[in-house]
Design a protein that fits this description.
Alkaline Phosphatase, subunit A; 14 helices; 16 strands
Length: about 450
């Protein structure tokens, strides 16, 4: 993030002053990433036009209570829920997802995901969104940011949008892998930073040009004083050069009817909005569908922002965490409605054939229920859902042992999940990215293969 600390006004070649751009309500966006997002440049012609929606199920869903149930295990292992049949013979999932069960032909379950890093949320977030663990001060880019770098945006909309807000505190005080890392701020996602289920929801900093005339005089005066005080220093910074090179594209986003319309959820029928669920996650999934329709290449949806003092997938069983009953009473139905509606509408609108949908947590949960009646962190084995685009639906990849404690066969790493997404997006896994100090870094580590059963 950069600061606007300058001393004199600056005029662009079209006669619009930089301060006028700030008057348009975009100071916050400039400080966030608009000047970064729209400096995107594709590095070559893409060999496919596949999109991706990544649903980050913050907190780490329990494999035993969702998509890898063990009904014949002892009660302290199998938990309180029963499996139900899906529309694919032989595949069963938790009774907490009856709507999702009707769409099992549209996704596949990978039941043998694992990692060997620390059992903390932050490391899982890093690996599941970048394919790598952050080490030695190196922050690897989110998969959507890599797509932004290699293919750039389509039209006026950003290449990568993150909804509704970035992941916040999950206890580790480490990066979560949701920005562009060593690729630079230019490729950070457009972050909504708003709750789309709020009745007063509007997209921050995406205001029509005529908003200029409606600004209050005192705000105009205060912003002018601030900008005029500091432009001389700002002009010499790299951020200023970035602003000059990307200003027009940033302003295009503000003034683009198509870009603004993509975020206008009130255009959706009330019945459709209710089908997804009138909550933050449900409306974010509906917004993700609209953004894909508008040309956004990659949408990341965080189901939750923290695991503290909020009902989430993080079912330790006691406060400030969640009870296992929330899978039945709140979290399960919330996911079930939004995910099933997203799959159904993408399919109905002809978008599922070129849009991958990945739903994953950062790890699984302990096989044995703890004394508080919940389950603790368990990165040794968990399940995730992948489908859409070139990915096959209606199959199960891998299996876990009799208590879902470890992969029984076909173990899958986060790096392989990332490789599958990259390959599904039409990328050559040998492509090298410009790392720090000019050191080339491949999309995935050498020898990492995608999940072939899905492709």
């Amino acid at each position: 993030m950069f600061r606007l600390d300058a001393d004199r006004p600056v005029e662009f070649c079209d006669g619009l002053r930089r301060r006028d751009f700030l008057h348009a309500g975009s100071l916050a966006t400039l400080g966030l990433t608009l000047t970064d997002w729209f400096g995107l440049r594709a590095l070559g012609a893409p060999n496919s036009d596949v999109n991706c929606i990544l649903l980050m199920l913050i907190g780490g869903p329990s494999q035993l209570d969702t998509f890898d149930m063990k009904p014949n295990a002892p009660a302290e292992i199998r938990g309180p829920y029963k499996p139900i049949k899906t529309n694919v013979p032989g595949i069963e999932i938790s009774e907490n997802f009856p709507l999702t069960a009707r769409h099992a032909d549209k996704f596949s379950i990978v039941r043998s995901v694992y990692h060997t890093a620390a059992a903390v949320h932050d490391t899982g977030h890093q690996m599941m969104q970048t394919g790598r663990l952050f080490q030695g001060g190196v922050e690897h880019p989110h998969m959507g940011c890599v797509l932004s770098k290699l293919k750039g945006p389509k039209g006026d909309v950003p290449a990568h949008v993150l909804l509704p807000r970035p992941i916040g505190n999950t206890g580790g005080n480490m990066p979560h892998g949701q920005n562009a890392g060593y690729l630079g701020k230019m490729y950070d996602p457009f972050v909504l930073n708003a709750d789309p289920s709020d009745p007063n929801f509007k997209v921050p900093d995406m205001l029509p040009p005529d908003y200029l005339t409606a600004l209050r005089v005192d705000r105009r005066r205060n912003w002018r004083e601030m900008v005029d005080k500091s432009v001389s220093e700002f002009e010499t910074s790299a951020d200023a050069r970035l602003l000059d090179s990307t200003f027009q594209q940033a302003y295009t986003l503000m003034s683009s009817q198509k870009a603004r319309a993509a975020f206008e959820l009130h255009q959706e029928p009330e019945a459709t909005r209710e089908k997804y669920g009138m909550n933050r996650f449900g409306q974010s999934c509906l917004l993700a569908r609209r953004l894909i329709e508008a040309g956004v290449r990659f949408v990341t949806v965080n189901m939750f922002e923290t695991v503290f003092d909020e009902i989430t997938w993080d079912i330790h069983g006691s406060k400030p965490f969640s009870p296992i009953s929330c899978y039945r009473d709140l979290v399960g139905p919330m996911f079930d409605r939004a995910y099933s509606s997203l799959l159904a509408e993408l399919a109905e609108r002809g978008l599922l054939s070129n849009t991958m949908v990945v739903a994953t947590g950062e790890f699984g949960r302990t096989p044995k229920i703890n004394p508080a009646g919940g389950r603790d962190h368990w990165p040794q084995c968990w399940s995730l859902l992948m489908g859409g685009g070139p990915l096959k639906g209606g199959i199960v990849v891998g299996s876990s042992d009799e208590i879902a404690a470890a992969p029984k066969d076909r173990p899958v790493t986060p790096a392989q999940v990332a490789a599958t997404v990259f390959r599904g997006l039409g990328m050559d896994l040998q492509t090298e990215l410009p790392g720090g100090q000019g050191r080339p870094i491949p999309l995935v580590d050498r020898g990492t293969e995608p999940i072939r059963e899905l492709l």
